[in-house]
Fold this sequence. Notes:
The protein has five helices and 25 strands. It is mostly beta strands. It folds into two domains: about 10-310, no CATH class; about 315-430, Jelly Rolls, CATH 2.60.120. Strands 3, 4, 6, 11, 13, 15, 17, 19, 22 and 24 form a ten-stranded antiparallel β-sheet that branches. The chain has a six-stranded antiparallel β-sheet with strand order 2-14-5-12-8-9, with no helix packed on it. The model is unreliable at about 5-10 (pLDDT under 50).
Amino acid sequence: MDLTREAVAEYVAPVPMGSPENKLGNDPARAQNTPQFWINIAGPNATKKSGDRFQAKVCATSVANCTGTVISGINNDEYSTEGYFFALKVASVVTGQPLNIQVYDPAMTYVNDTCGANMPTQSEANALQALPGNPYPDAAVRFAPGLTSWCTGDQDISGRGTKTTFIVRSPDATPWSDLDNPVVAGCTKQMPSYDPGGSNPTIYQYLHPTDGKQDAQAVVNPADGSNTFAELFRQNVTICSIPAGSVSTGEYILQVRSNATAAAPTVYSASVVDGGHNRMSIFAGFGTAGLAAVDGSAVSINARGRLPIYANATAANTSFYLARVLPYDAGRTLRVTLFDIGDAASAGVLQILPPAEFAATFSGCVFSRDDGATLSSTPSTCTLSNVSSGNGFDGRSVTVDIPIPANYTCTPAVATQCWIKVRAAFPSGVTDTTTWSAAILGNPIRLVE
């Protein structure tokens, strides 16, 4: 007699991180700056110690996971040749409207962490706003120098040439692999980089249409198929528009990388040796109204298991959406890794918070650092204190194991529920590039029948 058993299982996708909405990062053009962070991507020649855990190749053995023995010719053992992946989940299609994906300030322009280098003076910004024809109606604020809400803080990290490639991929039936998703036609873009000042034109000269200095870079013509400096710098740039009638429900994948050539943007190239940190935000929505709304009901965007961010705030005391954990993970452990945290004027406090609809605090959290240092943690409230680069967090990985209670519950159908948050309190301000990752410990395959 033969006996057989059958079961149905499903693959548990990477943990969503960063946002339950259709925006990931600040949106200054629409006065929506709730999260107080930008997405960061480093060029391959940047140093890992500067905060990008997975796209910077260069590091000393004193930095976490930098033995140089895992990937031939690369010091960073955690380097990803494929870049970062973001999921754009389309829950419902808006009839008659295209699905648009935009990036704010997608091209690297060196201005330093707090936009104190190469920016127009306030007088120059005012002059740009007063130009005939009014090409820059809000130039006095959009192009103002210093740490304003428009400042992404593109930085020189062993170079100023990071060229960022954006690739949009269609939904498919294999959620365990993002690279086999078909590339959407016309939705692969590589952005240039700009190093203004010195022997190069200044930002003011790039933007001025009639001063005889790179006047072609001040042309704004969305129909000509090219991107000028004026169309990229501090602008919301559409990198992909999927026509109405061609959009399907499911997860589109946005791949963002800094290690490909313009000739072969979907392929890793070891020949790319640019440095620098490029900072940006990512938005998605159906039509103009969908982009303007802050809403995750039709389409949402979040990082898939790895979230590279940059925060430049004069004072930070805010809660970020960290990771989404659903009720079927009750009784398991969420592992969060925070790399290179605490580049701040003074020490701060981090606390991992459960979804507000479930409880006020987590308990039983276990904090550890890769160098074995003793940390100032309070497991009963899932809090880590005295966080700063001066206290040994520079270039180090902090692991937080968070027990998900057996009675954990939330409502997955509500986009803003089931989100675990991290509260960051740095009263003296931050200029911090950091990379967060999250995973549910255990087998990624679970039985459902």
